[in-house]
Each structure stands twice: as structure tokens, then as C-alpha cells.
Design goal:
Distance between the termini: 12 Å
Low-confidence stretches: none
Order of helices and strands: EEEHEEEEHEEHEHHEHEHEHEHEHEHEHE
Strand content: 15-25%
Number of helices: 12
């Protein structure tokens, strides 16, 4: 089969790799219909990881598709079923899975590398299929927009929702979202879904903040640093936001998030940390009773409720995809996202 491999920084290729196959009775083989490129995929692409990619390394962790083969112990899926995969697999049985923290599953793991198929390929072996996959209506496969919306549930929409939950977004509250990437935009949509009345997006890219407005943002703050803090305070009677979503992961973005949160408020952070974080003012958090929650999103926990809203039409995260390419052009997709000429690239197989 064909799959995307990363051989070295800036060296993305589609190559022939061994076919995905059932190895254990709890596996299924999923034929991929839709996949996408994540902002975190750009880290190994740019060489911004501790261990440099080695030739033949698979990549990609957001995908959905059709079950082609199921192991003998799989009870929830049969060939022909349409399903979406979270960005990490999990057994669904361990203590952490039962507690809704599937990203800490004792038997779980991630896609790609050398031990597992990557999501940006023609097929994927899915371990612990019953605990990992979520079944989708088969007729969804005929609607490109619905497939795109469903694909966001594998990571980006679930991560935005996790941030909103961590930030304790509530009906009638004020929310500020730091970052206008795909996760930040989904954080806006999640905040609107949870009933926020005022939603401020901090971002400088008009094409992205326009999407934020369509998702429910009421105000856009294009400034950075002290000017951004002052702008948010002006919009919130000088107090700051009840709930702040941090969707970037830099020290600067977290510092901004802390400074724009009102006393007694909460920060939901899902931007994967970059740098040491030594500049974060813990005393500020302490003195102002600001809660800090978030981390690696257990999207498997959120999938059923978000799926219901996508299928009903209550939410549509699909606009975060602003480019669609075939698998053969995946390298173009990486370049476009790296050059910021695309927000998020969808791969149609």
C-alpha cells in the first residue's frame, strides 16, 4: 500500500510500505477515506523534535475510513463499517480509560513511527478497535462536507472542546481564545456550543479570524503582548475573561492567557508546550485564584457527544479545512501549512 513517510526534516514522500494487516484478534484494518495534516506534524517536518526522523518513518494521526478486516475478538465492528479514529489508540478497559483519560491508557499509544501505521496512508492497522474507534453512519461517506466535519473529531475539534471544558466555559460567560490556528478556531466553536455570550479571538490572520467569527466569535483582538492584554481588558470592563483558551503553547501565549483571565477564572490549555515555561507567573495564578487545566485531549471521551452534534447539524467544524489534496500531493500540503498559505490540509483518498 502507499503511505506518507518522513525521511528527514522537510523530506515528505509517499512510498510503498507493507500492507496494513490484522496482527492480533483485537485489531481491525481500516481503509482510509479521509486524513489530514496536523500542526504538530510540522514539528518533525521542521526538525523541531528531540529525535530526528529516520528514513521510512510513518506519519499522521487524524483519519477516518471503512473497516476492511476485523480480528476474531472484535465485537463492535465488521467489514464495511465506517469509523473515525482518535489521535491515540486505547483499550477502553483500563482504569484510565474508564475514568475518561484514554490518552493515558496503559496499553495505548500513537500512530506512526515504525511500529504503527500512520494516518496519512491508504490503510491503518487499528489496535484495540473496540476501545479506540467510534462508528459513523455509513451514508456519511457520500457527503464530503460531513466527512470533513467528522474528521475534525479525531483531534482538532475534540482538542478545542477539551480546552473549553478545562476553561470551565459556561452559559453567559466571557471567553478569550489565544491563537487563531485550527485548534483555537475549534475552541471558539466549542465555547459557542457551551453557551458563551462574549467570545474574543486573539489572532492576526484575517482569513482565520473570519472563520472564528462564523464560529461565534464576537470580537477580534489583533494586537500582541501588552496591547492585547489591554484590548481584552477593555472588552471585559477591566476584569478579564471568565474563561481563557490557550491554543498555541509558547511562553508568550501562556503569559498572555494568564494576564487576561479575571480573578476566579480558568485557563484551558491545549497548546503543546514550547520552551521552558520559566516565565509563567505562578504567583499571579495563586493570588487571583485562577485555575489552570488542560493537557493532551482525551478526544475518545468526547467523541460520542460531539458526533451527535455534528450529525444533527448543531455544529460544523469543517471550515477549518481550507485546502483539499490527494495523497500524492501530501508534500505540497506540508509546504502550504509550513508557509502559512493553508490553515489545515485535508487529504482525500
Amino acid at each position: 500500500m502507499r503511505a506518507t513517510v518522513i525521511n528527514a526534516p522537510y523530506d515528505i514522500q509517499v512510498e510503498e510500505v507493507p500492507d496494513a494487516a490484522v496482527r492480533k484478534p483485537t485489531d481491525v484494518v481500516l481503509r482510509v477515506l479521509r486524513a489530514c495534516i496536523c500542526g504538530s506534524d510540522l514539528w518533525p517536518y521542521r526538525g523541531e523534535v528531540a529525535t530526528a526522523p529516520r528514513p521510512g518513518q510513518r506519519i499522521g494521526h487524524e483519519f477516518l475510513g471503512v473497516v476492511e478486516e476485523a480480528g476474531s475478538e472484535v465485537t463492535g465492528f465488521r467489514p464495511g463499517d465506517l469509523a473515525v479514529a482518535p489521535f491515540m489508540y486505547s483499550d477502553g478497559l483500563c482504569d484510565f480509560c474508564r475514568e475518561g483519560v484514554q490518552t493515558s491508557c496503559v496499553h495505548g499509544g500513537g500512530w506512526g513511527g515504525f511500529d504503527h501505521d500512520g494516518g496519512q496512508g491508504e490503510a491503518v492497522r487499528v489496535p484495540y478497535a473496540d476501545g479506540t474507534l467510534v462508528k459513523l453512519p455509513k451514508d456519511a461517506a457520500s457527503d464530503d462536507r460531513v466527512l470533513a466535519a467528522l474528521l475534525t473529531l479525531s483531534d482538532v475539534m475534540g482538542t478545542g472542546h477539551h480546552a473549553a471544558v478545562g476553561a470551565e466555559v459556561r452559559a453567559g460567560g466571557t471567553v478569550a481564545v489565544v491563537g487563531d490556528g485550527a485548534v483555537g478556531l475549534c475552541g471558539v466553536l466549542a465555547a459557542k456550543r457551551l453557551g458563551a455570550e462574549q467570545i474574543v479571538i486573539l489572532g492576526r490572520h484575517t482569513e482565520r479570524t473570519d472563520i472564528a467569527r462564523s464560529f461565534g466569535a464576537t470580537h477580534v483582538v489583533a494586537q500582541r503582548g501588552d496591547e492585547a492584554v489591554e484590548a481584552v481588558r477593555e472588552l471585559t470592563k477591566g476584569h478579564g475573561a471568565h474563561s481563557v483558551i490557550e491554543a498555541v503553547g509558547t511562553e508568550q501565549s501562556m503569559t498572555t492567557a494568564v494576564r487576561i483571565t479575571r480573578p476566579g477564572g480558568s485557563i484551558g490549555y491545549v497548546g503543546a508546550p514550547h520552551g521552558s515555561g520559566d516565565g509563567i507567573d505562578l504567583r499571579h495564578l495563586f493570588d487571583r485564584n485562577i485555575a489552570l487545566r488542560g493537557g493532551l485531549a482525551p478526544v475518545r471521551q468526547y467523541l460520542p457527544e460531539l458526533l451527535a452534534d455534528v450529525l444533527s447539524g448543531a455544529i460544523d467544524p469543517s471550515p477549518v479545512f481550507d485546502a483539499t489534496l490527494g495523497l500524492d500531493r501530501v508534500a505540497d500540503g506540508y509546504r502550504a501549512m509550513n508557509d502559512r498559505t493553508a490553515l489545515k490540509v485535508l487529504l482525500a483518498l
